[in-house]
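Hey, quick one: can you model this chain's 3D structure?
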Amino acid sequence: MLKSQSDKLVTLINSLTKAEKRSFRLFVKRNGNEGDTKFMQLFQLISKEKDFNEKLALKKIPDLKKTQVSNLKANLFKQILSCLRLLERNKIAEISVREQIDFARILYDKGMYKNCLEILDKAKKQSRDINFETLTLSILYFEKQIESQHVTGSMSSTADKLSSESNEILKQIDLTNQLSNLSLLLYGRYLRKGFVKNDKEFEKLKSFFNEALPEYKEQELEFYQKLYLYQSYVWFHYMAQDFINCYKYSLKWVNLYEDYPGRIVTSTTPYIKGNHNLLNALFMTKSRERFNDAYNTFLQFDIHKSKIPSFNEVSLFQLFKWTHFLNNIFLNAEYEVTDELLELEQILKENTYGWDKNRVLILNYKLGCCYFGIGDLDKAIDYLNIICNQNLPDFRRDIQSFARILNLIANFDKGNETLVAYQVKSLYRFLSKMKELEQTQLEIIKFLRSTPKILPKDINQEFIKLKDGLSKIETKPYEKRPFLYLDIISWLEAKINGTSIKEEIRRKLN
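Sure thing. Here's the predicted structure for all 510 residues.
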C-alpha cells in the first residue's frame, strides 16, 4: 500500500524543489522514456496530490494494475535518485570522485590501462584535497591491481610509491577512525547520561576520555582529524560543565574553517554545528557581549552564497538560528512578543523543517520560559504542558523535570494553590522514578509543598530564605545545570522586590 507521508517515494518527491522536478522531466526525456506514460503519470500525480494513496493512483492512471504499482514505484524512486546524483555531482565532491573511479573501471575493462591510471591519478588528487581517506585508499588499491597484473611501463618506478602511499593512508585512516569514534562515543554518552553530577562521575568521564584519546601532533593533523579532535574536547568539557574550555575548543572548531575556507561549502553541516556550540558555550557562561557578537556573525552567514544548500543544511541552520534567537532573549532580557517569536511558533506548529523530538522538546521548553518571562503565564503553561503531557520515560529527563517545576511555579504565580498542592506530589513521584532528584529541585519542591501553610505576612521572608539557600547551591561545581535551565534566582528576586523577572535580569546587566 502507498501511504502518504510514510512512503519513501512520496516523501522523496515532496522534498524536490521546482528546479529539481523540472530537471527530472528533462532527465526522463533524455533517457528516452517519454513513452512510459504510467511512469511519468505517477510522478505527476504524487507531485500534485497532498493526500496520495494507491486507490487514487489506480483511479487516475489508465490501465495501471495493482500488481504493477510496486515495480513502478521502485523504478521511479531509482530514476529520481539517478537524476539527483547527476545534479549533485558538481556540488558534492565525493560523488565527483566516485564518478571518476567508475570511468576508470570502464576504461580498465576496455584494456585502456594507461588512460585508466591517468583518471585514477586525477581522482586520487581530488580525494586527497577533500581528505576523503577511504576513497583515496580505494583508488590506491585499484592502482596496485592494475600495476601488479598488467605491464604499463611504469611498474618499476611506481611500486615503491604505491606501497608507501598505502601505508601512510592506512595510518591516517586509523587515526581519523579513533578520533571520530571518540567524538561519537562522547556524544552518545551525553545523550544517555547528560552532565556529570559529582566528582565520581567526572573521574569516570575523564578516565574514559584519556584512554580513548589517541596520540597525535596537532600541527600534523588533517582537516577532519582536527575537526573530530575539537568535537571530542567540546563534548568532554560540555558534559563536565566546564563551559570556558568548551568555548575554547568550539572556537578552535569554527576557526578551523578559516584555515580551510573551501570546507564551508563541502562540509557545511559541521560548520553550522561548530557555530552552534560556540554560541551555546557563550550562553552557558553568560558572556553577553561575546554572545551578541557571535550571534550577529552567525545570522550574517549566507547558506545560499556559494551553493544551493540541501534541505538538511537549511533545516539545521534554521534550528540553531531559532535556538539562539531564544537564548538571545534570555541573555539580554528582551522579553517581548515580536513577529519573530510568532513566526517560530508557527514553524513549530507546522513542523516546517522536520526537526526531531529532542529539538522540538527543547524549543517548547524555551518558549515556555520565554512567555514566563514576558508574564503571559497561560501561554507559558500551554507550552510546558506539551512536555508534561507526553510519555517519554527515557528521553531528556532534565528538560522534563524542569518543565514540570516551571509549570508548578507558573501555577503558583496564578494562585492555583490546589493545583500546585496536587502537582507537587506528582512531580516528586516523577523525579523519584526518574532518579533526577537534585539539591535545587529538592529545595524548590520543599518550598512549594509548604506554601499552603505560610501566612501572607511571612511569604516574603520565605522567598528570601529560599533565595539564600539556592544561591549557596549555585556556587557548587556540579549544581550549575539547573540554573542554566531555569533562572529561579531572578524569579525570587522579582517576588522579593515586587518587580518582574525581566526587570531583575536587566538590573543585573547594568
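One thing worth noting: Residues 1-6 have pLDDT under 50 and may be disordered.
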